[in-house]
Design a protein that fits this description.
Its EC number is 2.6.1.16. With 359 residues, this protein is of the alpha/beta class. It is 44% helix and 16% strand. The strands form 2 sheets. The protein has a 5-stranded parallel β-sheet with strand order 2-1-3-4-5, sandwiched between helices. Strand 8, helix 12 and strand 9 form a beta-alpha-beta unit. The chain is globular, with a radius of gyration of 20 Å. Bound molecules: fructose -6-phosphate. The site of fructose -6-phosphate has 15 residues, from helix 4 and helix 11.
Length: 359
């Protein structure tokens, strides 16, 4: 059932274009995004959105908060479910509470939606499992359509979450008529291109396979990025950590000088997410500072960057979300290749479970 792949994780990474195609089916019109599960009238009175989740799903939530503010112009905040439920949160009674969960059974996320419901908020679940506990609690659901995910490390469910959030943001932006015609058209064009972007390129996979042997020892990994590429940095670090058991952290590139740079040395591998579309020059100057401290630099970028020890060349796109999905495949494969070289079972990492039903 692994269909020739070494691990379910690998199969699921390669499956992503098909998953994204399923998500877009029936939703991507000539002129607009359609989401039959929602109505514009349901969304229109909503004045803010809170996104709540755990782990990888939390990284999707964070990505979604950038998209919702940009495309729908609704105030968006993000919460880690295990923190949220105990801190006596003050919620906007006219707000929408969105929970994101692959399994639909994560205990903290389930309790969070119950709490929001009890306070009278509208609720929406983004979930991969129909009839799960979280779906049963939610007023509305957008099913993720990712198919069963077997690898404990979430890959295709994450890309499904992010794409669904992008659709939600655009749909909401349409309902509120906040996007210029030109901006809206640009989003639709990018959505049409996303399937191709997630197709694994053999050249890239091969390069990551070869590079991975250089990174098996060291003090650890920094993943850095800005804007949408900050949640992606967090996700790259999480993926690597959970299956390789090496230390990794994700940081906003601009935050370097406030603390993480203290760790920089040649044994620290910095994976810089250098998106052409998004504050490239700013990220570059953050990376230059790390390089001056002798950090070993691995740049994921379209550009030539002479300071990098290794460059993982990606294809150029003028839309940030296309760069996001292109880089997502790279960080997923990088984590997998490093973990396989270390001899780990990437489908069943130690100490982790696919569904976390206790808090
Ligand atoms: C990481 C991973 C976990 C889950 C987290 C939430 O690859 O799988 O961090 O993302 O336990 O699970 P769900 O999405 O099922 O609520």
């Amino acid at each position: 059932r692994k269909e020739g792949y070494r691990y379910f994780m690998e199969k699921e990474i390669y499956e992503q274009p098909r998953v994204l195609a399923d998500i877009l089916t029936g939703r991507l019109g000539e002129q607009a995004v359609r989401l039959d599960e929602l109505e514009a009238d349901w969304l229109r009175p909503i004045s803010s959105v809170t996104l709540c989740a755990c782990g990888t799903s939390y990284h999707a939530a964070l990505t979604g908060s950038y998209l919702l503010e940009r495309l729908a112009r609704v105030p968006a905040r993000v919460e880690i479910a295990s923190e949220f439920r105990y801190r006596e949160p003050v919620l906007d009674p006219n707000g929408l509470f969105v929970v994101i969960s692959q399994s639909g059974e994560t205990a903290d996320t389930l309790e969070a939606i119950k709490l929001a419901k009890a306070q009278g908020l509208a609720t929406l679940a983004l979930c991969n499992v129909d009839n799960s506990s979280i779906v049963r609690e939610a007023e509305r659901t957008l099913l993720l359509r990712a198919g069963i995910e077997k690898g404990v490390a979430s890959t295709k469910a994450f890309s499904a979450q992010v794409l669904t959030l992008w659709l939600l943001a655009l749909y909401w932006g349409q309902a509120r008529a906040v996007l210029s015609g030109e901006r809206h058209a640009r989003e639709l064009t990018a959505l049409r291109a996303v399937l191709n972007v997630m197709q694994v390129q053999p050249r890239v996979h091969e390069r990551l396979h070869r590079l991975s042997k250089r990174y098996l020892h060291g003090h650890g990994f920094f993943f850095i990025g800005r804007d949408l590429f900050y949640p992606l940095a967090l996700e790259g670090a999480l993926k690597l950590k959970e299956i390789s058991y090496l230390h990794a952290e994700g940081d906003p590139a601009g935050e370097m000088k406030h603390d993480p740079i203290a760790l920089a040395d040649a044994e620290l591998f910095t994976i810089a997410l250098m998106a052409r579309s998004t504050f490239y020059e700013k990220v570059k100057s953050n990376v230059e500072e790390l390089s001056a401290r002798d950090a070993t630099l691995i740049a994921i970028t379209t550009e030539d960057f002479e300071l990098a020890d290794d460059i993982i060349q990606i294809r150029p796109y003028d839309h940030p979300m296309l760069e996001f999905f292109e880089m997502l495949v790279v960080v997923q494969l990088l984590a997998m290749e490093i973990a396989i070289r270390l001899g780990n079972d990437v489908d069943m990492p130690r100490n982790l479970a696919k569904s976390v039903t206790v808090e």
